[in-house]
């Protein structure tokens, strides 16, 4: 997983460098950032969703200042929390199997009705 994150960090550094050197451009396509965020481990399951850059107006572009600030913040997070990516829970409570009603704590009722 660390290699994947390192690759995304390297790509985002290049995107940031390009955005900072292109002084005459007022806006940048959000796909330039979001395609790399989508390559982070677990992104297809919704992890890293908060790193997606939303467009500033009706097209798929963000103003230069917003774009640069977003890429810098994303890089800072990825570099500082490199070894601890965000977790995503798909349910509000942890899954627990209930013990049998007859008081035998070694027997667990499974959802199929069988006892284990």
Describe this structure in words.
With 116 residues, this protein is mainly alpha-helical. It is 38% helix and 5% strand. Helix 1 (2-21) packs antiparallel against helix 3. The two termini are 36 Å apart.
Q: Concise description?
A:
The chain is mainly alpha-helical and 116 residues long. Helix content is 38%, strand content 5%. A two-stranded antiparallel ribbon has the order 1-2.
Give the SSE layout.
Blueprint: H1 2-21, E1 27-29, H2 31-37, E2 61-63, H3 64-80
Antiparallel strand pairs: 1-2
Helix pairs in contact: 1-2, 1-3
Low-confidence segments, ≥5 residues, pLDDT <50?
none
Structural category: mainly alpha
Count of DSSP strands: 2
Largest sheet, in brief, is:
2 strands, antiparallel
Helix and strand run:
HEHEH
Radius of gyration: 22 Å
Pick out its properties.
116 residues; mainly alpha
């Amino acid at each position: 997983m660390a290699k994947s994150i390192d690759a995304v960090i390297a790509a985002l550094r290049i995107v940031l460098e390009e955005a900072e050197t292109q002084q005459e451009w007022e806006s940048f396509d959000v796909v330039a950032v979001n395609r790399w965020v989508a390559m982070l481990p677990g992104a297809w399951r919704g992890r890293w969703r908060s790193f997606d850059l939303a467009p500033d107006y009706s097209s798929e572009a963000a103003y230069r200042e917003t774009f640069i600030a977003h890429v810098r913040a994303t890089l800072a997070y990825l570099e500082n929390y490199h070894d601890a990516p965000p977790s995503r829970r798909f349910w509000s409570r942890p899954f627990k199997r209930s013990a049998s009603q007859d008081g035998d704590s070694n027997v667990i009722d499974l959802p199929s009705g069988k006892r284990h």
